[in-house]
């Protein structure tokens, strides 16, 4: 089993510390949180140093996370998006991973469903074309608080794009919050699952409730509403054999000793998913 620590789970640390903590906690892979990676490079670090440090720790890189705001479609914004896609894809290859997370936000939520699907298809096709040249694949995250949020939408975009280097991350919280079920996940084609985000949380209960992830997801795995065993079993039913990345978004937990927290996260992953 590929067990991965998502770098957002240790929000206030740095990349070098993430590598050490992942090893000490018992993970065998790391989902590199892109802001930490960029900060490391901006302060004199090199990709070679990161790659060597990860290798020396006996780890792999599961994903580079993430190419953000992929819904940008106005001319200058889209040019910038594709330049960023080229850059992060090149960096991923240099780090030794072939998988980049791509993340839409709320930038086109004011548009019709049809327009949203057309924009997402066009942008992901252009991004995937870059990846074909570099042997990079892209893993779509479906934020539950956007209008591009459902598994059905992802399947349709993958069908329209028609490229093998586009898939989805089964993110337990986002899927659960968007109304997806473990039964739907169990019927997925494993070739479309490029990774798992193992996480917990709760959802808004009434109109007007906040969709703030730092509130809704502020708990350790097993403390929220999600049946982690059921969701994990659903993924395993598909035959998926890729990386399971533990993602923690909790300001209160981030303030605790990261060594203790990362060990507990790894233990939770093995408890519910191994």
UniProtKB/TrEMBL annotation:
Keywords: Isomerase. Transmembrane segments: none annotated. GO terms for molecular function: isomerase activity. It holds the Pfam family AP_endonuc_2. Residues 19-265 form the Xylose isomerase-like TIM barrel domain. It comes from the Bacteria. InterPro entries: IolE/XylAMocC-like, Xyl_isomerase-like_sf, Xyl_isomerase-like_TIM-brl. This is Xylose isomerase.
């Amino acid at each position: 089993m590929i067990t991965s620590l998502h770098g957002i789970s240790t929000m206030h640390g740095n990349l070098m510390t993430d590598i050490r903590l992942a090893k000490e906690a018992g993970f065998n892979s790391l989902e590199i949180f892109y802001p930490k990676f960029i900060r490391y490079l901006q302060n004199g670090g090199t990709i070679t140093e990161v790659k060597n440090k990860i290798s020396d720790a006996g780890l792999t890189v599961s994903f580079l996370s993430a190419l953000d705001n992929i819904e940008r479609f106005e001319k200058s914004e889209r040019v910038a998006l594709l330049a960023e896609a080229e850059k992060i894809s090149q960096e991923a290859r240099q780090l030794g991973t072939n998988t980049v997370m791509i993340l839409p936000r709320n930038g086109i939520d004011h548009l019709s469903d049809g327009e949203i699907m057309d924009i997402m298809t066009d942008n992901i096709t252009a991004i995937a074309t870059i990846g074909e040249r570099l042997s990079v694949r892209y893993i779509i995250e479906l934020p539950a608080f956007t209008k591009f949020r459902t598994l059905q939408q992802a399947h349709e975009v993958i069908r329209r794009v028609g490229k093998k280097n586009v898939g989805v991350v089964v993110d337990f919280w986002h899927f659960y919050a968007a109304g997806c079920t473990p039964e739907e996940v169990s019927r997925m084609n494993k070739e479309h699952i490029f990774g798992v985000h193992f996480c917990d949380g709760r959802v808004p209960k009434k109109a007007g409730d906040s969709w703030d992830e730092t509130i809704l997801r502020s708990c350790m795995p097993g403390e929220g509403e999600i049946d982690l065993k059921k969701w994990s079993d659903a993924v395993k039913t598909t035959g998926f054999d890729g990386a399971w990345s533990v993602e923690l978004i909790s300001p209160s937990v981030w303030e605790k000793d990261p060594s203790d927290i990362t060990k507990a996260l790894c233990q939770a992953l093995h408890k519910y998913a191994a």
